[in-house]
Amino acid sequence: MASPFIKRYLLALNRYKWPGLFTFLSILGASSVVAFQPEPPQEYYSEGVLVNNSPLVAFSDTSAQVQDQGLGIINEDLLLSDVLLNEVSAELRSLGIDLTPAELVESTRIAVVSPDEEETSPGLRQRVTVRFVGQNPEVTETVLNVMFQAMVELSQATNRARLGAITTELDKRLPAIEADLRETEQDLEAYDRIEGPAIQASIDGSLLSGITGSQQEQRNNLITLAGIDAQMRSIQSQLGMTPDQAYASSALSADPLVAQLRAQISEAETQRALLRSQGRRDSFPAVEELNNNLATYQQLLQQRASEVLRGDGNVAPIPSGTQTNLDPARAALANQLVALDTQRDALLSQQQVLGQSAQALRQQYADLPNKQLERNRLEQQVALRRALYDRLQASRVDAEAAAAETVSSLTVSNPPFTVPNEQDRPAPIVILLAGALTGLIAGGGVVYLLDMLDGTVRTAEELEEMLQDQEVPMLGIIPAMKTRSARAVPILVQPDSIYHNSYERLLSRLRLVGNEESSIGPRMIVLTSTRSQEGKSVSAYNLAIASARAGRRTLLVEADLRSGSKAEILGLGIDPQTILEPLRYYSGQVGNNAQMISQVENLYVCPSPGPQSQPAGILESSEMQRFLKDARSRFDMVVLDTPSLTRCDDALLLEEQTDGIVLVTRPGITEKAVLATALEELELSDEVRLLGAVINAVSMSTAQAADLGDRTVDDPATLSREPEFSGAPSGRIDF
User: Fold this and answer.
1) Between the chain's N and C termini, which has fewer beta carbons within 10 Å?
2) pLDDT at 241 over 60
3) 606, 641 Cβ separation under 8 angstroms
4) Torsion sign, CA atoms 55, 58, 63, 65
5) DSSP characters for 309-342?
6) Can you say whether the dihedral through the CA atoms of 705, 706, 708, 713 is positive or negative?
7) According to the CATH classification, is domain 460-708 in 1.10.10.10?
8) How far apart are CA 706 and CA 735, in angstroms?
9) pTM score > 0.70 for this model?
10) CA torsion through residues 277, 280, 282, 284, sign
11) How confident is the model over 287-333, as pLDDT tens digits?
12) Residue 27 CA to chain centroid, in angstroms?
């Protein structure tokens, strides 16, 4: 028995034999053209070797660098550049040899080899083998000599150009580098002028000494202030005055006008007291005059005191309790208190100045690390700029010295020699055999590739493997049934058909996957497929016939309301009124929705009233639900033939009223991706019950064909018109 792979390949070979044959013949024809080509004329080739070159004595690094770079770019593109080919072509024309650059490229072969270090002598890193093929040995050798000379000169010109580019680039960069160096040096000098004294003071310790001296002077001032405060408190306790009051009293006591006014006031008060002692009233003219004089003297005293104490106008009026007449001792104490207060204010001002100076010195000392870092940064930038400038200057001098040492990176190691070009050509029979073998392999590959690109499942084994991978129960394998003509449909109405066994086994397996409520398995099932022409309608009819012949009252419902009825193959007709009123048809008011088949006992068929404009609405109608409920109660087995899943969801709409779905597949029709998607959707749905799958129209093996005796289906029912599915294989009508 052939393996599934060989079986699938043979089927693919039968389908794609013409592309495979075309590929085989194309390759065989091409090999025939090559095999019977005439012998080419005698050719010669001239071959020589170029190796890397360097100056005998190299004093500059730039020279060695240019030589190394020249070796690194030696390749076929450089040695066969347009400039070189044009020069060689012009030189050859002057020698009487007419070769265009394109002809030179076509006849020249170059191999650039870089040997391993173990196999390379010092100074030898590349080996360039050049071969020129021609029909004249003298011309061939002359051409190669001219090409060698041009290659050496081109390498030398390239090295010189590279050295010139280096010199030009150095001259271009030097002014900018020198300007950067001068700018960084000026920045460093300016920074030293501004921050240099502070940094130097930190280095020699004078900044720390200034901070220490300022702190010591502040401590001394604090001690002096403490002594002054003690003296002031002692004098204040003796005088009973504040420094401001003592200053005012001292100033008033020392003023002569104030003293004169005090004397006049004292004299007037004495006279007034004398008159009062004599019994004079204030209304007495003399007493009244004295009172007026006293008021005037008091006013003048206040004005003079204000003039003395006002100063620049900012002095406050005389405080209450101020003594305007002090004795000499108290006046001396008042003057001493004022002097101590003045000294205290001076010390406080000096202390504030010293504090600010000390804070500035401490801030300057704290900023010194940043200043030193900034100076180090500027100094480092100057060093880097200077190093770069010195390096460029040295490179410029080195490049000038390299100008005298620059030579070609290539030199001739082996001069050209010319020998006949022996062409090793295989025999024509070998070329033909190789072409035939290649054509067979390529043709077979084309057939295999086309088959792989086709997503259709070709063999029953592949279908069975896919169903097993999806854990879908296998209900049966139906063999392909042969008919005498394309107009005959393989419906098994004859009682002795040899194909009944397959559908009887399908009924038996349905009992195993059915529910436990019924001993005979599912009583109402939906038959559908992933796409058309997989044989679901034939399977539905034959399954219903097998159930009826098993003694079960069976009803076949054509639930495909999107196409016409197929019951005409059994001689059934349909009332035209049912097409106009499908709901009344299913409710039993119009036509007969369960017609008995005379050829098969116990078999009834409900023809489809299609095609309808709204089939989904009819399937979900209450009339259809009552019809199916009544069918379940009246019949032992109900088979619903529904449209394919890729066409619509009618099968899923009817499934909830049945015991489950049976999926029909067919090798050569079922597509792998479509089947996998349908199975995944059915498995993911908790409401849909997938009872299993059937593989329909399976090709029989030789032994199975012998058992059947190569018999055909002798069906008296034929179609009244040509089937619309004429694309199916001859003798196998699927609908």
Assistant:
1) N
2) yes
3) no
4) positive
5) HHTTTTSPPPPTT--S---HHHHHHHHHHHHHHH
6) positive
7) no
8) 28
9) no
10) negative
11) 788 888 888 878 887 777 776 666 544 444 444 444 556 667 777 77
12) 46
